Task: structure prediction
Amino acid sequence: MEYNGWTNWETWHVALLIDNEYDIYQKKVELVKRKASITTFKNSLKKAETETRKLHRENAKNNPEGWGKFERIDWKQIYSRAMEEEY
Result:
């Protein structure tokens, strides 16, 4: 199910954290400038996925949006959008 123009909530939230957590964002900019591979990109920004999984686990039962099981994060979509940005 699409969420705010992203593949799903999980992908959206990871992308949101990457762009809103200063240290993670700085790492993203560095990776984009270096034109890092998607594998390096994903592995270097794994902290955003870890934080998203933690938030989901802690709040899934009480979330009014009715979160179910944690869905796959579309790292290709996050990577593609990041590589389109200019720094």
Remarks:
- Helices lie at 9-20, 22-34, 38-44, 46-59, 75-84.
- Residues 17-84 form one domain.
- The chain has a mean pLDDT of 92.
